[in-house]
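Quick board copy: two proteins, each given as sequence then tokens.
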Amino acid sequence: MTVAGFAFNPFSENTYLLIDEATRQCAIVDAGCYTPAEQQALRSYIETQQLQVALLLNTHSHIDHVLGAQFVLDTWPDTPFLVHRLDLPTLRAVPTYAANYGFPQYRPAEPTGELVAGQPVRFGETELEVRFTPGHAPGHVVFYHAPTATVIGGDVLFQRSIGRTDLPGGNHAELIHSIETELLTLPDDTVVYPGHGPATTIGDERRYNPFLQ
């Protein structure tokens, strides 16, 4: 599995393509593309690389991570769209505030299935472990790929920082517990691809993240 990333929308949200090299199937994680140019960037990459979109996954459902979900479902029909059930209220609240955040053209998307901690997600020959990591959002999950020591981490752990917990459903103690039990238990060389900013490693954050000392 390889990872391709795009920074979309005014929040500089990281949308990821997880690519199964053996089959050229891919999973889109946290589709944040909003403008036509952003949408075209995602579509052009997928078409140029001759990828087959197999899944749309969300670590969580805050507005910046779901702005492009319906675009994905329109462009690649019948793509399964999976979120954790505890984040459905987060997703369904987005239309109530999207215009106030400057996204009047937001189009809501409805999931077709659920992500369940401990139940793997598969596409092509790739299998992702789903780990439940609430604290930033009630139904937040991360995706761990052990063979490549990779985590797609959403807004849980950042380079020298952690996710904010002042949004509805946030809980600082819960977030720290999630990091300690679901991320810091992974090998130090595990690469974390976060929802914002550059990639980091578990080892670096264990040693240098001021929120984890």
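And the next:
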Amino acid sequence: MTFISILLALLIEQLKPLRADNPIYTQIQHLADKIEASFNAGTVKHGRLGWWLVVGLLTIPTALIYWLCLRLSPFAALAWNVLIVYLTLGFRRYSHYFTSIQLALSSGDEEAARRFLAEWTHLDTSDMDVSEISRLTVERALMATHRNVFGVFFWFLMPVGPACAVMYRVAEYLARAWTEPEHMQDEAFGQYATKVFYWIDWVPARLTAVAFAVVGNFEDAVYSWRNYADRWKDEVVGIILSAGGGALGVRLGEPEEKAMILQADASAVDIDSLDLESQPGTEATPRALQSAVGLVWRALLLWMLLLALLSFAVWI
């Protein structure tokens, strides 16, 4: 049932992608904002209470409905699984940005590529060259694929899969919504959301990195993972992007590394001695976007193959 649920949800999403501003997501965002406004007293314990309240309000009904569907018939449970996977997956949700950037770069329209990238990342892209645009697009695509697809896959395989998939997506959203906005960056309220999502995403992130290595350049992916993952401030981001960059043969994250090092202690560091160019791969180019698409699709097929084999083993 798990394999069929994911397969049907993927097929439906290919035909009818769910928009990022759909009503269900909007209501969840309003709920998270309301809980934050009501519980945020500037302490970690209030953030913990708010996190459990939001997650509980969304996962417990999902689990109860799944249990009722199982009691009714396997087909009702299948339908509920497909609906939840469709709502939690995001394979096509942000692909229009990626495709628009890819087409703009292919036609030589760098200004349009910067505009699309700025809409996607909410960063200032006005001074970025083609290499930086390509690099950031690949980085955002790899991370979006992990958090909107592979992370959901992993948790959907757990007992009470629909509730676990909802839990993963809600935890991922709260980790962003309660820490990334400028007024929340120094707040203790969001620290628990960040910490708990780190552990929720610990295994899925490493499985995603392994998948990228298996379907890409295995040797460079593993080498980059072992030697360069710690250059990112976020460990999970470092693991996925270092492995993904190695698998693609593209260097990712280096301008950010230099900026972080210089901001930390500009007077004590000789930037020319850091040997940042030793990371395997070449500078990102528009062709790297097409390579990233191939890597993601191959990784998706690998996940589906393993899931099919697991389902077959359970049936026999």
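Board note added afterward: The chain has two domains: 2-200+285-315, 201-284.
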